[in-house]
Amino acid sequence: MLEKRLEKHIDLLVKRYPKLQSLTNDIIRAYCIMEQCYETGGKLLIAGNGGSAADSEHIAGELMKRFKTPRPISDSFAKQLINVDRERGKELVKNLECSLMAIPLVAHEALTTAYMNDVDSLGVFAQQLFGYGRKGDVFLGISTSGNSKNIMNATVVARAVGIKVIGLTGSSGGELAKVSDIAVKVPEVETYMIQELHLPIYHCWCLMLEDKFFGVDE
After folding, report:
1. Which residues have C-beta within 8 Å of that of residue 165, sequence separation ≥ 6?
2. 3-state SS, one letter per residue, for the chain
3. Residue 108: CB partners within 8 Å, gap ≥ 6?
């Protein structure tokens, strides 16, 4: 169930991108899976190929530091930092920001290239999910076709571990939509047009998560 104060983000998304109106319920359901994950101490693991790989890193960047809302550290942790090192601690107190843990599986070049070279190029995301993932986490698989083989391999590991799967795809949904706990299928078929609608959706998710965990009740 979406908190009333978070509805403004969905309303703005639909106002700016009317063709996403039909996806409102799916976007909210996917958000709620992520919210529950973070509430229980989980993390978001993200993967895609090409432009969707860039989106994976983009999402992590919005979640691991402030997007729009300040995220100051707690007073208790601030005291710990200063106790450890008074001068450096003071600077860190001013500059550190609270995070929502998000790992882009596309960003670990040494690991991924070693695995692809030594073992299996199509299992590289599956291997990382097996290593990083824990029950209660969420895997966000981004595939414009919904049929990316390395993403599909990762979903098998995710489901075996107990990691919920969110698919972000194009209108067909492909195989990814069939195995996801929730699939958000944007109403486009051309790759670049699909990607153009993925961005406002995941920005909306990031805004909602930030508002939920770091915002102030209105």
Report:
1. 138, 139, 141, 155, 158, 159, 179, 180, 181
2. CCCHHHHHHHHHHHHHCHHHHHHHHHHHHHHHHHHHHHHCCCCEEEECCCHHHHHHHHHHHHHHCCCCCCCCCCHHHHHHHHHHCHHHHHHHHHHCCCCCCEEECCCCHHHHHHHHHHCCHHHHHHHHHHHHCCCCCEEEEECCCCCCHHHHHHHHHHHHHCCEEEEEECCCCHHHHHHCCEEEECCCCCHHHHHHHHHHHHHHHHHHHHHHHHCCCC
3. 128
Instruction: Determine phi and psi for 31, rounding to 5 degrees.
Output: -60, -45
pTM for the full predicted model: 0.96
**Residue 84: both structure tokens together:** 């450890």
Per-residue tokens: 59: 């999402």
The rounded mean pLDDT for the chain is 97
Which band of pLDDT confidence, cut at 50, 70 and 90, is reported for residue 216?
Answer: confident
Give residue for tokens 């390395």: 150
